[in-house]
User: Fold these one by one.
Assistant:
Number 1:
Amino acid sequence: MQVWNDYLSQNKQRFLDELFELLRIPSVSADSKHKPDMQRCAEAVKENMLKAGCDKAEICPTGGHPIVYGEKIIDPSLPTVLVYGHYDVQPPDPLELWHSGPFEPVIKDEKIYARGACDDKGQMFMHVKALELMTKTNTQACNVKLMIEGEEEVGSANLGKFLEENKEKLKADIVLVSDTSMISMEHPSIETGLRGLTYMEVEVTGPNRDLHSGVYGGAVANPINILCQMIASLHDENNHISIPGFYDKVQDMSADERKALNEAPFDLGEYKQELGIKEVWGEKGYTTLERTGTRPTLDVNGIWGGYTGEGAKTVLPSKASAKISMRLVPGQGSDETAELFTKHFESIAPDYVSVKVTALHGGEPVVTPTDSVAYKAAAKAVETSFGKAPIPTRGGGSIPIVALFESVLGLKTVLLGFGLDNDNIHSPNEKYDVFNYFKGIETIPYFHKYFAEMSK
Ligand code: BES
Ligand code: MN
Ligand code: MN
């Protein structure tokens, strides 16, 4: 719409400046040293909601970091869109690999570089700016509620309770989330599923103290060696996960679904080149797109033990540990998978060591419908702003709260994400294309317009 284009082109620089202000706040939810920054960031989000035209915006304290809630209700007879996003970010380290400071946003080659540029401050802020666009041009088509949390990157432990306690306040017709990716700007797409997650920590203990590896080495099991053997045994020669029962409840995709999924534009050569790998790896019998979108996986996220300082120390350590996460697909349950893992990991521990297994957090997988009014409105919005109909894809990432929107609030979600898989989220040099930021701000108001029209 012309009024939107005009408003956007007149306010471009300010829309960038305001995002940069938010990106300068190091809102790292995992690190307690950033607790004051979390509060500061929540306040900044609240102020921006009010500036965008919200009648009400508030900071809701939780047992952890606060949730920011705002709303602009124009007419109770119109549909209501509940926007979800997160203002917390992943830790920025390793710092030395950043080309510019993680909390000193810069634009280079038309890309915004900063921690949170894409995941999720940049994407969340598009909704705040889109709301401003609509309120300032008198074109808001749906009631809008915004719920922006500060604990997504650490498992959203307090958000479930918030949903339970605020069912009335959060009443809506659809949840709209921009926290996922598209294939590319030439091939716009909408993710129609997220994987679940089960996150474990294991500790293997051998002798009751660190030992001299010359005096005892060869006669006492080294917990690091044993842990490595145990981890290696978690995949078989076909890269299937060897935990008994792990795949029992996995819902396989139909031949048609697989075919559709593999028709998405994807260049394996480019994929490998961009990652600097000679070959891709994965479960036998599945393509790369199937492996990331539709199959469960198991990855070690960190492993430690023994001496890792400068130079050499000949030690046979007493303990070794690892963080191991599993991505889940429809049919699998997070708690159930944690139990299967625990039972199996304990059972494969040889008598030379003892093991302790702890479940850290998890979330359930989701599939979002493509035959709903909301999906159709989103597809039409993308088609309007990109000039091309979006391709439905399955994302590999997880947003655990999405399953709870359905089970607690009875709401379906549309994953209207504008990131790219190579935006380096959770990595050094996270970026978000300036183009994508504005494309998102342009697309979102169309979603509201079409959702209102098509809901009639
Ligand atoms: N925005 C991501 C999830 C995502 C990324 C979905 C790309 C689809 C495409 C989210 O912030 C995230 O990182 N989630 C975590 C899970 C959480 C419990 C720490 C994840 O997927 O590892
Ligand atoms: Mn995110
Ligand atoms: Mn993330």
Number 2:
Amino acid sequence: MCGIVGYVGNRGSLDVLVGGLKRLEYRGYDSAGVAVIDPEGRLGTRKHAGKLGVLTDDLGATPLADGHTGIGHTRWATHGGPTDENAHPHLGDDGRLALIHNGIIENFGELKDELAAAGHTFSSETDSEVAALLVGDAYRATGDLTQAMLQVVNRLEGAFTLLAVHAEQPGVVVGARRNSPLVIGLGEGENFLGSDVAAFVAYTRRAMEIGQDQLVTIRPDSVEIVDFGGAPVDASTFEVDWDASAAEKGGWSSFMAKEISEEPEAVAKTIIGRVDDGLVRIPELDGLDEGFLSTIDRVVVIACGTAAYAGMVGKYAIEQWARVPVDVELAHEFRYREPVLGPNTLVVSISQSGETMDTLMAVKYARKEGAKTLSICNTQGATIPRESDAVVYTHAGPEVAVASTKAFVAQITAMYLFGIQLGQVRGTLDDARARELVRELQAVPDKLATVLATGDRIRELARWMADTQSVLFLGRHVGYPVALEGALKLKELAYIHAEGFAAGELKHGPIALIEPGQVVFVIVPSPRDTNSLHAKVVSNIQEIRARGARVIAIAEAGDAAVLPHADEVIRIPLASPFFEPLLAVVPLHIFGMELAAAKGLDVDQPRNLAKSVTVE
Ligand code: M6R
């Protein structure tokens, strides 16, 4: 949601702003705008509903006087529709101040009444314009942008990132954040602000974190951070571990196609540095200390969407390997039911972006209730890791397509590593078994490469099914979350009604959906599985086939039992049952993408969705 860029330095600011917004496009947006201060100290703005191209075409046709200080914004509409008027920047101080905003200002109604009573009129329906007018008024009183912002942020309720520039202060951009993302990029004689590092990674990989309720003033040669009380704050810097090319499409037809192709690498990179002498040793868990790991009496996983399905896969593995109960809960449901948490509960959040508001709020709640928190996250400098006691980063690299793919397999990998280490620490896995699991996990990337090779056949199937109205997905045990993930991908990418079920649930209701021609994907457990789930799922296939379903089975190589019953079998390499989700999900990712492409849809930016859901 909303992309934010700020720049001061000696480059032409429009190039930096538009380039940054381009790299933030993946977050999802419906309008875009920029504000720059030209060398004469005049503030110019331009903003438009629609994609960035509408803005850049206008800038090409009627150039805006450029300078070296500016802010840029992509808006995901909340208050007021996606119109030119509601697009950011918004103006204050009689057009001398420009402000951009991400988040929701919850008390904007009363502030708007106050501004109206003072004689202000409004040119948009947004909550953000209220902040622009307030900062403008505060600037008139203080003559200083930092002081003006400080006064105003303390009056705002809700979640926000704000950036502002004032025509009288070229060379200064002020930013503030509360429960909404903002990262600082550190250059030589130039500095940047961004919703995430993608905004500036083309110019610098040196970045600085800014905490909650903090305000930053950047100039070409300085960065000053204070808290909302005005007291100076020390911030830590970090090096971005990928470069701009990692966030480019390369020769691929879509970011999603590229990211699916990177699934083997995402698993491999998440393992690297976390295996020592054949056993798992995740250095980042030192933040929790081994003593605590052995006393955990319960793990609660909180996450949303695809990340929650990664948590479900992790649940099966952790309970088996470490013999600790694991509950998986959707983060948005978590804090509103006053969950029971204790000092020996470990709350594990999973989030690709590290900015999902529902997950962030659940983490904060868990900490307040005295639980320890571990974040599994793919984005350096994000908020959720900073709000947690420890963080295990997944190393999937930047994920640009809205639909999560390589981050999903990396999240599952991180959960497996955590589960193995927990088993080692608690003595529920002996070294020999732990080493065996590690070897199996390390073998997954090569096996994934084999699965990717089935892509052409899946593309054919997807083309054939372009007019399909409904698809069901069945799985059992760790195959169940895979079924849920397959269904979610079809909903969000191809706008097709899709449902995932635990295969055992079929006879309790969903089998009524089966009619001739209904397409059903079935994730078939390994026949080598010791708890005989394979036979049960094959029976399920027979039941639905008898009622006319068209069955596409995802089954292990050599599993002959499914052949007579399925219309189509997609083969995955042999792996022990717990590692099958990593292999079985890839055909479903490819299928979702190819079906959307066959329908002529935008695979990378599906309708109504944002990559980073920073509002509740
Ligand atoms: O950034 P997060 O992992 O916290 O995002 C969670 C969900 O919003 C995300 O997984 C969403 O479900 C994806 N669009 C699924 O492809």
Number 3:
Amino acid sequence: MAHEIPELKVENLVVEYVTEDAVVHAVNDVSFEVPKGSTMGLVGETGAGKTTTALSIMKLLPDPPAKLVSGKIEFAGEDIVPYSEKQMDALRGSTVSMVFQDPMTSLNPVLTVGDQIAEVIRRHQRVSKLEARTKAKEMLELVGISGDRAGEYPHQFSGGMKQRVIIAIALACNPKILIADEPTTALDVTIQAQVLSMMRDIKQKFDTAMILITHDLGVVADICDTVAIMYAGRIIEYGKIEEIFDDFKHPYTEGLFGSLPNLQKRHEKLKPIKGLMPDPSDLPTGCYFHPRCKYATAECAKRQPKKTYLSDTHYVECLAYEEGTGVKIEGGDIK
Ligand code: SF4
């Protein structure tokens, strides 16, 4: 069977921030694919390179200091890296849309929410003002807000409602790719669950390819099909949701799960990962995780791990799974 062209494909992406004093290695050879209708969770601590990856896909990184050093970013098989700002402007909102972290600052306080949605529609589609306004009301209904509220201003909405409006704006032109960067972090837990379930419904309805950026594995379990675990600008483990949740292999992924409270084992203490993410302008030699890894050997400081495939869809970057490195996980396996 012919391999279907993914809606989004990122290949060997390298992004740096170059300043007078240092070169910050933010994204270090990242590759992944997101097929139509599928959601990939991009997970890792702050500073892992998740948002830089997302902004590269949108081509919204400030250049300088940011520099897309190498790699491809393909929308339905077409590399957009060489695209001009004008070409990208036509794609943003219509082909690819992004929901940013903070709903409070993403809306214009002096425009009604209906006008803000209609503005995006009018920018990308040849429709009359009236048609755009009618569509804006439909979008509000889609995200669970009455269309009658289209004439209200952002301050008249709660945090959760504002985030729904932002999602309505992002989806107004039916984009093929949606990138949601910590879309529920600023919301309280019950509202989080409502917004996530709404996003899941919309994704199914429109068959949107989605990247969900989060540090919260609970959110990933709820909505994602695949998971990419990112550390120091690299994807160090990738797999289908069940492969990562039931059979994770990387010591860092183990650490992420160890930092989660377990309701079944309430008496057990959390085991947070010791140490901090390395300074991206001064990355360690060998495996970037070795200064924090409880299984590290001298070899880990010398060699950078390659991808080892454990199935067609699950890979890990750790020397313990590579032949002939001599690095072993104590007990033979991570679990
Ligand atoms: Fe740990 Fe070594 Fe594997 Fe890196 S390569 S994750 S340091 S065991």
Number 4:
Amino acid sequence: MTQNIRIVGGKQLKGEVSISGAKNAVLKLMAAALLAKGESKIYNVPELTDVVIMLDVIKQLGAKTSYDKEEKSITIDATNLTSVKASYELVSRMRASFVVLGALVGRCKEAIVAMPGGCAIGERKVDFHIRGLEALGTNVKIENGYVHAKARKLVGNDIYLDIPSVGATENIMLASVLAEGATRIQNAAQEPEIIDLANFLNAMGADIIGAGTSEIVINGVKQDDLKPIEYTTIPDRIEAGTYMAAFVATRGKGIIKNIFPNHLTFYTSKLSKMGADIKLIDPTSIEVSCKKRLEAINIITQPYPGFPTDLQSMAMALATTADGVSIITESLYENRFMQVPELRKMGADIHQERNHALVKGVKNLTGANLRASDLRAGASLIIAALMANGVSTIDNIYHIDRGYELIEEKFRMIGADVVRFEQDDTATISQSKGNLSESQL
Ligand code: EPU
């Protein structure tokens, strides 16, 4: 039974949304918890399928985990790791779990982790991860679909990344915390999630400087210097950007709480240029409204602090009814315009050539039966459906559940007409996704 959602468009959204912890930060913090012996506790953990999969990966390595639904926290006791192998069955379900590679190499000097392979949005190679580990003295072989990394000892080195890859920066940081001497990552990713990982590791006893800039220096420490910690995950900037788009799309007005507004500076400036009104209410809340027809916009996705690729599809949904022609260029992934054919079903006028899309604004979109092909493309269809005339259904929403906590509940709280139903029983509306159950821990 696949789960779908049905959205009646055209409702102006109003009210407050509270943003959950960042998926792309917490998954890496969970891997980082493997470095210290003892029990670490992470707060502000979103209830998402990806978090469940990561818990399974961590359990497979022998760490003990627990989840407190009320407190939104997880504990990871990594006192004893009994395996260095992360199986294909788990890594193939979520490529972000590949980050245990760096943590295992750091802690155990050995890791056997399934190669994640490509995914719907692109090839997503891991060559920089592997080259980075090799530079630290690891011998890396790829055999039977697994990356087998083994080191007698790890020694710090200078590592230059051809692209400021988020995952490669994270894997190298995790592996080098316990290396001898200093590791310098040049052209490092600068995303807020990288800073969060560095803050987490430093709180544990690591010595990392420069996170958030293009050069990160990791001075190796000893295993006994690392202690388990309690830590609160940063807010999810992509979830925040999605709700910002929803208020703008419906000409609504709302407050987005529990965010770090400076993580969204580029996106905010583009939405403002389109005609949205975005005000800082306090250090962790903004008010977003929009009264007029949007103006067309030009966007090129770039590594942070540029326009985030994860919000490109939301901007495209907005551009479909903006006044004029928008040009959207996706420069990170080869195949991140999966929303285009679905938006066309709703009447959008989009001409795509390779990684460029020309979006000619139409007067309005109309509801249609849509399919989510991946997480962010799926989320953009929700934005489009909210602004469309009539009813839309979106299937394959398990993609969306990977990254948005309690999505239909949150949208309903701000006035959207959204219901979840199962494919063969349109009358059964689930009350909650309930992704994390005790049995899954
Ligand atoms: N790349 C390589 N070789 C490598 C590593 C990356 O060629 O060894 C390329 C990739 O193929 C891609 C580009 O570099 O074209 C950027 O990839 P990066 O490594 O920065 O991305 P990632 O770590 O795999 C994370 C997020 C993505 C987000 C990107 C960019 C997680 C779990 N995922 O992916 O989030 O789009 O950074 O910001 O942190 C999402 O949440 O929907 C999502 C896809």
